[in-house]
Amino acid sequence: MNVKDEEKIDREIEKLPSGIAISWGLRKQPQRGPKRELSIDQIVEAAIDIADKEGLAALSMSRLASSLGFTPMSLYRYIPSKDDLLLLMQEKVSDINYPNEEVETDWREKMRQYIRICIKVFQNHPWFSDIPITSVPLTPNQLKWVDMALRTTRNLPLNDYEKMSIVLLLSGYARWCGIIMKDMSMAIHTGKSPGEISGLDYSAALKKLVTQERYPDLYPVLMSGAYTEENEDANTIGNDFDFGLERILDGIEHYLLAKEKKE
């Protein structure tokens, strides 16, 4: 790489959005103030604590500053905007432990592990999925997620495009599961019973209201009890989320077999 190329890269690094630059340690901490010094980590941890307990809607720079005993303007010296704060919150909770790389498991189990780890983050921090996706991962810990997902494809006969497509598929499914589980947990927290959530409490009413003429394909499923998990047979295939994941893995396996035959 010549000097001009290096200078161009340095200029691009300097143009990184402030939140991303902070996550990589490229932004210096403000000088010590007259009262006592804050830190970016301290601010981010306090924000996570508020969001974990009360939800993202309860978090504002004013509320956060008050919890730390500072003014909102003091926080902006460390983190320029709330968007930067949200990005750094996601980055902080994305610092997770990975499965032991030395333990040999097949690719399907590695993908299961990845999905479980992702879902656990959504469960531990329900606000995580409330932050819109605005770009590919660009911060250190979130790039670790991508690295871990790619690890599941390491020994598979796939090109880089195929590997990234599988990462997107797995990550999307994990996010969907996390959002559904979060919504169910919130419903229970607000007083709904499991029967209300599953529809079991309304099964009899639905069977009377749903007619075969109006809902020709839903009707037999509803009458069998599968729609509202009314009978034990509904659990014979296991957890809905696990069932969906296994079908995704089946699809990947089918793709690998088809590719092998072509070659």
Automatic annotation (TrEMBL):
One Pfam family this chain carries? TetR_N
Q: By what name is this protein known?
A: TetR/AcrR family transcriptional regulator
For the biological process aspect of GO, one term held by this record is:
negative regulation of DNA-templated transcription
Identify the DNA-binding region of this protein by residue numbers.
60-79
- Molecular function (GO) terms listed? DNA-binding transcription factor activity; transcription cis-regulatory region binding
InterPro entries reported for this sequence: Homeodomain-like_sf, HTH-type_TetR-like_transc_reg, HTH_TetR, Repressor_TetR_C, Tet_transcr_reg_TetR-rel_C_sf
Q: Which PROSITE patterns match?
A: HTH_TETR_2 (PS50977)
**What is the top-level taxon of the source organism?**
Bacteria
Q: Does the keyword Ligase apply?
A: no
Q: List the PANTHER family hit by this protein, alphabetically.
A: HTH-TYPE TRANSCRIPTIONAL REGULATOR RUTR, TRANSCRIPTIONAL REGULATORY PROTEIN
The HTH tetR-type domain, residue ranges: 37-97
UniProt keyword annotations, A-Z: DNA-binding, Transcription, Transcription regulation
